């Protein structure tokens, strides 16, 4: 496994000096909840203009209300190439050029190897991998020189976890894509990096239909896999995304784990 020695402390030091994103134009796919919404809030609070996407109009409207008038919410399905192309047209009309792109839209599903279906496989790769690839392709012409692209991978791309074979593979493909896209976009002076979250308390479990005791038991199980013995927050991942997008000016092709040491210790 590559030596990935960045720490959240380094990010915190950088963020203290980064007081504003005034005038920055940022696109976040999958920005209506969880990590995407926390990242959009960080940038909007700092003065940036943020365009977020999501598949559900209701969640987009709720996110838009939280973010205020610095945010634009666009319904777009990352599984649809037509939606991706339409998104690029919308971004061009609204922003012209883009200072940062956070490719965060994704889905998860679990099943034992023996029970994995073709439909599940196609959905995970179609959204997590194919969708991410063509999102970068469609928006690359709008990226300003010196801009940053951040992809969301996952700690499981480097770990063997039961029942996550397809999801893990889709995220491992994104890790490889981070390197190759970073190389391909070098002539445009665009950096491409990845943030790799571990167990994050993003609210997904709380919003699920699971009983409260099952939700808490699941969180306890996740905590037990993390050396720091706690779940991370969406805001902690957002801080890492902001650093990769704007502060990591001499880094490209890299992956930044935000996982409490799960992939490192």
Oligomer: single chain
CATH class descriptor name = Alpha Beta
Helical stretch tally? 8
What CATH calls the topology is Rossmann fold
> What percentage of amino acids are in beta strands?
15-25%
Helix content: 40-55%
The count of strands amounts to 9
* Number of domain units: 1
Euclidean distance between termini CA atoms: 12 Å
CATH homologous superfamily heading = NAD(P)-binding Rossmann-like Domain
Named CATH architecture: 3-Layer(aba) Sandwich
Mean pLDDT rating: 90
- Read across the widest sheet, the strand sequence of neighbours is 3-2-1-4-5-6-9
Describe the model.
This protein has helices at residues 8-17, 34-45, 57-67, 81-94, 118-139, 165-184, 212-223, 234-247, and strands at residues 25-29, 49-54, 71-75, 98-103, 143-152, 191-197, 200-201, 232-233, 255-258. It is globular. Residues 1-7 have low confidence and may be disordered. It is built from 8 helices and 9 strands. The chain starts with 7 loop residues before the first helix and ends in a 7-residue tail after the last strand. The protein has 265 residues and is an alpha/beta fold. The chain has one domain (8-255): Rossmann fold (3-Layer(aba) Sandwich). The strands form 2 sheets. It has a 7-stranded parallel β-sheet, sandwiched between helices.
Features of this protein?
265 residues; disordered N terminus; Rossmann fold; alpha/beta; single chain; 18% strand; two-stranded parallel ribbon
Helices, strands, pairings?
Blueprint: H1 8-17, E1 25-29, H2 34-45, E2 49-54, H3 57-67, E3 71-75, H4 81-94, E4 98-103, H5 118-139, E5 143-152, H6 165-184, E6 191-197, E7 200-201, H7 212-223, E8 232-233, H8 234-247, E9 255-258
Helix pairs in contact: 1-8, 2-8, 4-5, 5-6
């Amino acid at each position: 496994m590559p030596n990935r020695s960045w720490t959240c402390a380094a990010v915190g030091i950088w963020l203290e000096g980064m007081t504003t994103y005034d005038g920055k134009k940022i696109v976040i796919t999958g920005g209506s909840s969880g990590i995407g919404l926390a990242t959009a809030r960080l940038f909007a609070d700092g003065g940036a203009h943020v365009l977020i996407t999501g598949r559900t109009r209701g969640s987009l409207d709720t996110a838009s209300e939280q973010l205020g008038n610095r945010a634009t919410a666009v319904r777009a399905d990352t599984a649809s190439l037509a939606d991706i192309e339409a998104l690029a047209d919308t971004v061009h009309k609204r922003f012209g050029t883009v200072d940062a792109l956070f490719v965060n839209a994704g889905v998860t599903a679990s099943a034992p190897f023996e029970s994995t279906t073709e439909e599940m496989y196609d959905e995970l790769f179609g959204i997590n991998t194919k969708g991410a690839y063509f999102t970068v392709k469609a928006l690359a012409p709008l990226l300003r020189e010196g801009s940053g692209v951040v992809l969301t991978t996952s700690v499981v791309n480097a770990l063997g976890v039961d029942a996550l074979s397809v999801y893990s593979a889709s995220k491992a493909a994104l890790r490889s894509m981070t390197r190759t896209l970073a190389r391909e976009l070098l002539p445009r002076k665009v950096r491409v990096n990845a943030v790799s979250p571990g167990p994050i308390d993003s609210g997904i479990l709380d919003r699920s239909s699971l009983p409260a005791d099952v939700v808490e038991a699941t969180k306890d199980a996740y905590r037990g896999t993390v050396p720091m013995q706690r779940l991370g927050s969406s805001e902690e991942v957002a801080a890492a995304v902001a650093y990769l997008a704007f502060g990591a000016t001499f880094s490209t092709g890299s992956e930044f784990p935000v996982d409490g040491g799960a992939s490192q210790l």
